[in-house]
Amino acid sequence: MKKAICFMLTLALLICSFSFLVNADNDLPDYSMEWHEWVQYCGEFEGSNTLISLTPGADETQMNFAWHSDFFSKKPVIRISKNADMSDYTEFSARFTFAENLKQKVNKATATGLEANTCYYYTYGTDHTFSEPVMFKTLSPESFKVFFVSDIQCNSFEGDTEKARQMAYNWQCNLANALNANEDISFILSAGDQTHHGLADEWMYTLSPKALRSLPMATTVGNHDNKTTLYNHYVNNPNTYLGTTPSLTGNDYWFRYGDVLFMSFNANNENIYDHFNFAKEAVMQNTDAKWRVGMLHHDFYGTGGHADNNENIWLRAEFCPIADIFEFDIMLTGHEHIYGRSYYMYNGEIVENEGYENGNVTDPQGTIYFTASAASDNCRVYDEPYDFEWLAFTILNQESIYSTMEFDSYTLSINSYFCDTNEQVDEFNIEKSDTSFADTSEVTFGDYFNEAVEQLCGDYFFIVELLQTIIGTIMSMFC
Ligand SMILES: [Fe+2]
Predict the structure, then answer these.
(1) pLDDT digits over 155-186, tens only?
(2) DSSP state letters, 288-315
(3) Ligand 1 center to 337 CA (angstroms)
(4) Same domain flag for 99 and 178
(5) 226 alpha carbon to ligand 1 midpoint, in Å?
(6) Distances (CA, A) of 292 to 258, 273, 305, 345, 413
(7) Over pLDDT 90: what percentage of the chain?
């Protein structure tokens, strides 16, 4: 009997130890760093411009990679394996373009066939020389959680390395704190201004947190990123829409994760014809999606002074009809560096959904607009919060705020926290009993344009209608 008990206990111990080892191997590490560790780490990547970026692929079975290598390097590839020693790897060839510095190439590869809830390792290289394996995990796309941030906006301060390191360290600490409180993150949504001047050094600092070697980040082009054409060299966006006038600073793109369609717009591009057609194409290719999420940089239903400047008045008229026509559930923005959310908006008006007060809405009509704070502590603080009529909630604070967004088929929960303490500052829950959308296959650019003009003209739209009638009458007289 003693021997049997001993055997059972030993077996139980072995099983426990084995599970611990497996979990330990599969868990992402604590990415926290002290300042002295950070400075030492900065010395490893500064000057090289070779940090790899991960971007969500076209759907949850894909992962996109982009990295710089030497100008004369050949045969860029990514290898993916389920084993830390990279045995039984699958290799994916990269395509390349020349970097703007003319000393490097930009390599982009897509890993396909990824399974959910699986631990993978990747190495990347050229000329048969490979990086050390790095782990990343795929989680379930059926119910998943993402981070929402914006305006990481690392600044190279004209070569002041100390300041640049500090700013990147703020972003590093905020990301590490958020990950320590949320280990089940599938990817990051960053609503633009990843950089301050769009410079290579600034992309280097923004991509510097080690967590970003394992966690993909979907971005959009902010007005600061738009200062150069480097954006495309540091991301590998899926389903990029080039349209009639491809922008050198970045284009609209979409991806699908589970039941959610994510659409990212470059709001710096003023070609509304392309934005409309992009949205229509994305929606038509994902008619079975249960959620539609838009992301762009400019906060035209935002939290501060930017929201009502001329640029945003135009963008409001440009993008609200797109959100209205294609029934976006939520639009994610940044730009103001102050966290907040709007009421549900439709056709330029507040929609009176029930549940605003307690942060729980069911089957809401319209689109809700979120504005993120700045992710590297560069938050704007006014004496008083703005009291725009569209603002349902805002908070002025020096500390950065991040949001988690948890999707399943019928619910979306958005929770927001101070980055330094993980103290919760906001909660908003959306429930849908009907996840279908209206058929928009027959909607034309003309329909959209009319709505955009109506939004822009407001109460004066009757003048446009009068002119349309007069012109129509004259045309019918002569044609
Ligand atoms: Fe901005």
Answers:
(1) 998 889 999 999 999 999 999 999 999 999 99
(2) T-SEEEEE-S--TT-SSGGGGSHHHHHH
(3) 8
(4) no
(5) 10
(6) 12, 20, 28, 15, 14
(7) 82
Task: Using alpha carbons, select from 133, 89, 142 the residue that is nearest to residue 111.
Answer: 89
User: 245: CA distance to ligand 1 center in Å?
Assistant: 23
160 and 99 in a common domain: no
Task: For residue 459, give its domain range.
Answer: 445-449+453-478
Q: Measured in angstroms, how far is the CA atom of residue 421 from the centroid of ligand 1? A: 25
Q: Which of 116, 138, 160 is the last residue of a domain?
A: 138
| CA 225 – ligand 1 centroid, Å | 9
For position 236, which CATH number holds? 3.60.21.10
Q: How far is the CA of 223 from the centre of ligand 1 (A)?
A: 5
Asked if 215 and 80 sit in the same domain, the reply is: no
pLDDT band at 468 (very low <50, low <70, confident <90, very high): confident
In this structure, what DSSP letter does residue 396 have? -
Do 235 and 103 share a structural domain?
A: no
Does any domain span residue 295?
yes
Q: Are 139 and 182 contacting, i.e. CB atoms less than 8 angstroms apart?
A: no
| pLDDT tier at 26, thresholds 50, 70, 90 | low
Q: What is the pLDDT of residues 286-320, one digit of tens each?
A: 999 999 999 999 999 999 999 999 999 999 999 99
Comparing 9-18, 59-68, 213-222, the range with the smallest average pLDDT is 9-18
DSSP-assigned letters across all residues of 1-20: -HHHHHHHHHHHHHHHHHHH
Same domain, 93 and 168: no
pLDDT of residue 469: 83
Tokens 């027959």, located at residue: 442
Distance 151 CA to ligand 1 centre (A): 7
254 pairs with which residues across the strands?
A: 263
Q: How many domains does the chain have?
A: 3
The CA 257 to ligand 1 mean position distance, Å, reads 27
Do 104 and 151 reside in the same domain of the chain?
Answer: no
Contact residues for 25 (Cβ-Cβ < 8 A; gap 6+): 84, 119
The predicted pLDDT at position 465 comes to 76
Same domain, 72 and 130: yes
Rounded mean pLDDT of 350-369?
A: 92
234-292 residue pLDDT tens? 999 999 999 999 999 999 999 999 999 999 999 999 999 999 999 999 999 999 999 99
Pair 338, 369 in one domain: yes
